[in-house]
Amino acid sequence: MYTEELVQEWLQVYDNLTSFSFMAYFSLKDEEIHLLSKGLVARLMLINEDHKFAVIHDEVNEETARALSTYQGMSLSFIFPGKASDHEELVSTTILEGLDFLRIKGDYLGVTEVFDYV
Predict the structure, then answer these.
(1) Is the CA virtual torsion 38, 8, 13, 78 positive or negative?
(2) Residue range 88-109, pLDDT digits in tens
(3) Is the pTM of this model over 0.85?
């Protein structure tokens, strides 16, 4: 999951990364992912916070869903450079409200901090 080029570059510059993970029980189009991202940028700007983040998404097909005892859809990770776990409430609420607006069932899976030496 953290093999994306930008994420690897951030690990070189920042002490850690913060990842907020979600599951959408539908295959999202690029436009829908972009809408979720724009909503998050707007909310971060309202509280005068840095709105730099990356979105990584992966399809969860039938085989993977069976292996993980979940449903098909798409996993989404919003990855922030540095420590951003203080914004867990804002990020989770914004993305879940965005999915609800799109009429897509989704779940918040949690926050993870990744350190460059791990």
Answers:
(1) positive
(2) 999 999 999 999 999 999 999 9
(3) yes
pLDDT surpasses 50 at 2: no
Q: Tell me, what CATH number does 13's domain have?
A: 3.30.70.3400
Cα maximum dimension of the chain? 42
Find out whether 87 and 49 touch, Cβ atoms under 8 Å: yes
Contacts for 2 with CB less than 8 Å, ≥ 6 apart: 8, 11, 17, 19, 79, 114
Q: If we measure between CA atoms, which residue out of 46, 40, 48 comes closest to residue 80?
A: 40
Per the structure, the complete domain to which residue 19 belongs is given by: 5-115
CB 56 within 8 A of CB 3: no
